[in-house]
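Per your request, structure below.
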């Protein structure tokens, strides 16, 4: 009689924890509960029995149950979809996915090659700019040197003109005027002539006396 009472209390405890009418406790759950009671030296009529029953009953996790339900719905949807799509449509969709992947790979390849080309172009432009800048600097130095050479040429020309005519100015004024005349001729693109012991941009005019002598001899 006492054993039947204890069994009834256990069943009532488990039924309360599990919810009446849902399911019966398993043998494993009963053994776990009994083992815990023995370790704690509890009697079957101990009020803590209800707590023990609550802790030993393998109730499923609510979050896991929700995920399991969602997974079941997804599996059912896939099964329904497989029943409604024929093999040809499924093969066409698979091919479409493969073609899309191929196009994506091609676009990525084109993008990578375009970036390589742009980098190469940028490198070529930078190299060309550097070469052009170097050439410009060389040209500028060459132009300055030529100007210096021309200036020296004009100085030598002026000295030769002054020496040949016996007209030599010790002061800087004569040299400055001659140099100015030579620079003016060069700027106008005209040749340089020795005219009356100086520098001129036009040839010297013949003297009247020489013209008259030439006419008399004729």
């Amino acid at each position: 009689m006492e054993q039947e009472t204890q069994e009834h209390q256990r069943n009532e405890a488990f039924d309360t924890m599990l919810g009446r009418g849902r399911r019966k406790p398993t043998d494993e759950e009963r053994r776990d509960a009994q083992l815990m009671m023995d370790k704690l030296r509890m009697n079957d009529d101990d009020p803590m029995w209800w707590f023990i029953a609550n802790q030993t009953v393998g109730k499923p996790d609510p979050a896991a149950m929700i995920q399991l339900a969602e997974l079941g719905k997804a599996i059912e949807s896939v099964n329904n979809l497989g029943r409604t799509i024929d093999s040809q449509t499924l093969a066409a969709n698979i091919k479409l996915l493969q073609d899309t992947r191929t196009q994506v790979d091609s676009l990525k390849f084109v993008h990578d090659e375009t970036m390589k080309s742009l980098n190469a172009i940028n490198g070529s432009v930078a190299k060309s700019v550097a070469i052009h800048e170097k050439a410009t600097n060389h040209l500028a130095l060459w132009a300055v040197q030529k100007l210096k050479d021309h200036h020296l040429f004009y100085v030598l020309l002026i000295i030769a003109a002054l020496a040949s005519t016996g007209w030599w100015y010790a002061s800087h004024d004569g040299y400055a005027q001659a140099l100015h005349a030579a620079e003016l001729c060069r700027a106008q693109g005209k040749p340089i002539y020795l005219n009356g012991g100086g520098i001129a941009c036009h040839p010297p005019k013949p003297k009247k006396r020489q013209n008259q002598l030439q006419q008399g001899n004729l």
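The radius of gyration is 58 Å.

Regards,
D.
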